[in-house]
Protein backbone atom coordinates (compact mmCIF):
# COMPACT_ATOMS: atom_id res chain seq x y z
CA UNK A 1 0.00 0.00 0.00
CA UNK A 2 1.31 3.45 -0.93
CA UNK A 3 0.70 5.92 1.91
CA UNK A 4 1.30 9.68 2.07
CA UNK A 5 1.89 11.09 5.55
CA UNK A 6 1.57 14.86 6.09
CA UNK A 7 4.74 16.22 7.64
CA UNK A 8 5.29 19.92 7.10
CA UNK A 9 8.50 19.71 9.18
CA UNK A 10 9.65 16.32 7.76
CA UNK A 11 9.87 14.99 11.32
CA UNK A 12 6.38 14.44 12.73
CA UNK A 13 2.83 13.87 11.50
CA UNK A 14 1.30 17.32 11.13
CA UNK A 15 -2.33 18.55 11.00
CA UNK A 16 -4.38 20.40 8.41
CA UNK A 17 -3.72 17.99 5.57
CA UNK A 18 -5.36 20.18 2.94
CA UNK A 19 -2.84 22.97 3.55
CA UNK A 20 0.26 20.77 3.84
CA UNK A 21 2.81 20.76 1.02
CA UNK A 22 5.27 18.26 2.49
CA UNK A 23 4.61 14.55 2.68
CA UNK A 24 6.51 11.35 3.31
CA UNK A 25 5.52 8.61 0.87
CA UNK A 26 5.72 5.09 2.31
CA UNK A 27 5.21 1.62 0.92
CA UNK A 28 3.71 -0.49 3.69
CA UNK A 29 2.45 -4.03 4.04
CA UNK A 30 1.12 -5.82 7.12
CA UNK A 31 3.82 -7.44 9.24
CA UNK A 32 6.70 -5.33 7.95
CA UNK A 33 8.12 -1.88 8.71
CA UNK A 34 6.92 0.91 6.45
CA UNK A 35 9.58 1.88 3.91
CA UNK A 36 10.02 5.52 2.95
CA UNK A 37 10.17 5.67 -0.86
CA UNK A 38 9.83 9.38 -1.55
CA UNK A 39 9.42 12.84 -0.05
CA UNK A 40 7.16 15.43 -1.61
CA UNK A 41 8.08 19.07 -1.08
CA UNK A 42 5.57 20.83 -3.29
CA UNK A 43 5.55 24.52 -4.26
CA UNK A 44 2.83 26.99 -3.26
CA UNK A 45 -0.44 26.30 -4.98
CA UNK A 46 0.04 22.53 -4.76
CA UNK A 47 -1.50 22.01 -1.31
CA UNK A 48 -4.65 19.96 -1.88
CA UNK A 49 -6.80 22.82 -0.60
CA UNK A 50 -5.41 25.10 -3.32
CA UNK A 51 -4.98 22.65 -6.21
CA UNK A 52 -7.56 23.10 -8.93
CA UNK A 53 -5.73 21.37 -11.79
CA UNK A 54 -5.25 21.00 -14.62
CA UNK A 55 -3.98 17.46 -14.50
CA UNK A 56 -3.31 15.07 -11.70
CA UNK A 57 -1.90 15.97 -8.33
CA UNK A 58 1.14 13.99 -7.07
CA UNK A 59 -0.91 12.73 -4.11
CA UNK A 60 -3.63 11.27 -6.32
CA UNK A 61 -1.43 8.20 -6.89
CA UNK A 62 -1.47 7.05 -3.24
CA UNK A 63 -3.84 4.59 -1.59
CA UNK A 64 -4.09 6.51 1.69
CA UNK A 65 -3.25 9.87 3.26
CA UNK A 66 -2.57 10.30 6.99
CA UNK A 67 -2.41 13.54 8.97
CA UNK A 68 -2.92 14.66 12.55
CA UNK A 69 -6.29 16.08 11.46
CA UNK A 70 -8.54 15.65 8.44
CA UNK A 71 -11.93 17.21 7.83
CA UNK A 72 -15.10 15.44 6.79
CA UNK A 73 -15.14 17.10 3.36
CA UNK A 74 -11.52 16.14 2.75
CA UNK A 75 -12.29 12.51 3.63
CA UNK A 76 -15.22 12.54 1.20
CA UNK A 77 -13.21 14.21 -1.57
CA UNK A 78 -10.41 11.65 -1.26
CA UNK A 79 -12.88 8.75 -1.09
CA UNK A 80 -14.33 9.81 -4.45
CA UNK A 81 -10.84 9.21 -5.86
CA UNK A 82 -10.40 5.87 -4.09
CA UNK A 83 -8.02 7.28 -1.47
CA UNK A 84 -8.47 6.62 2.25
CA UNK A 85 -7.90 9.71 4.42
CA UNK A 86 -7.20 9.13 8.11
CA UNK A 87 -6.31 11.23 11.13
CA UNK A 88 -4.10 10.04 13.96
CA UNK A 89 -2.43 11.06 17.20
CA UNK A 90 0.65 8.98 16.27
CA UNK A 91 3.49 11.50 15.87
CA UNK A 92 5.94 9.22 14.01
CA UNK A 93 5.24 9.12 10.24
CA UNK A 94 6.61 5.60 9.66
CA UNK A 95 4.78 4.23 12.69
CA UNK A 96 1.56 5.84 11.47
CA UNK A 97 1.91 4.24 8.03
CA UNK A 98 2.57 0.84 9.55
CA UNK A 99 -0.33 1.21 12.00
CA UNK A 100 -2.69 2.04 9.14
CA UNK A 101 -1.90 -1.16 7.24
CA UNK A 102 -2.03 -3.16 10.48
CA UNK A 103 -5.51 -1.75 11.23
CA UNK A 104 -4.46 -0.16 14.51
CA UNK A 105 -3.94 3.53 13.70
CA UNK A 106 -4.49 5.54 16.92
CA UNK A 107 -7.37 8.03 16.62
CA UNK A 108 -6.61 11.74 16.44
CA UNK A 109 -6.19 13.76 19.60
CA UNK A 110 -9.20 15.92 20.43
CA UNK A 111 -8.70 19.62 19.90
CA UNK A 112 -10.46 22.86 20.62
CA UNK A 113 -12.47 24.60 17.90
CA UNK A 114 -12.33 28.38 17.76
CA UNK A 115 -15.49 30.49 17.68
CA UNK A 116 -15.45 30.75 13.91
CA UNK A 117 -15.32 26.98 13.56
CA UNK A 118 -12.58 24.73 12.37
CA UNK A 119 -12.08 23.56 8.82
CA UNK A 120 -9.53 20.86 8.12
CA UNK A 121 -10.05 20.82 4.37
UniProtKB/TrEMBL annotation:
Gene3D superfamilies: Dinitrogenase iron-molybdenum cofactor biosynthesis domain (3.30.420.130). SUPFAM superfamilies: Nitrogenase accessory factor-like. InterPro entries: DiNase_FeMo-co_biosyn_sf. It comes from the Bacteria. This is Putative Fe-Mo cluster-binding NifX family protein. It comes from Rhodovulum adriaticum. The lineage of its organism: Bacteria, Pseudomonadati, Pseudomonadota, Alphaproteobacteria, Rhodobacterales.
